[in-house]
Amino acid sequence: MKTLVNWQKYQRAKPNQNKDNLSKPVFRFKLHSIWQLLRKYLIVSSELQVWSTCDRQGNIWWSAYNPITQRSIYHVSEEQILAWIEGRDRY
């Protein structure tokens, strides 16, 4: 059985131990997050990037970037973006 003094010492030491144990996974998570961001911005992807935006009237506009050809197209209709992707339409 622990005495009151020993129990108080144990309780004071316990949060520090937990803090150290919790900080390691947090540090690893932050390091992993930073690594993912670096990979995203430093490694050049050859994949076609396509995204949509919605204006205030609710219209959907499409944009795309092809890193291989370094060509891009912005704020076009779905039909126009599909034609651009298929290479039928040259913007």
How many domains? Answer: 2
* Largest sheet report: 3 strands, antiparallel
Q: Could you give the order of strands across the largest sheet? A: 1-2-3
Using the CA coordinates, give the radius of gyration: 27 Å
Distance between the termini: 81 Å
> Which structural class best describes the helix and strand composition?
alpha+beta
The strand count comes to 3
Share of helix, binned: 40-55%
Stretches with pLDDT under 50, minimum 5 residues:
none
User: DSSP strand (E) fraction?
Assistant: 15-25%
Order of helices and strands: HEEEH
Topology:
Layout: H1 4-42, E1 49-54, E2 60-66, E3 71-76, H2 78-86
What does this structure look like?
The chain has about 90 residues and is of the alpha+beta class. The protein folds into 2 domains: about 1-45; about 50-85, no CATH class. It is about 55% helix and about 20% strand. A hairpin with a 4-residue loop joins strand 2 (about 60-65) and strand 3. The longest helix has about 40 residues, at about 5-40. It is elongated.
How is this structure best summarized?
With 91 residues, this protein is α+β, with helices and mostly antiparallel strands. It is 53% helix and 21% strand.
Essential attributes:
single chain, 91 residues, alpha+beta, 2 domains, three-stranded antiparallel sheet, 53% helix, elongated
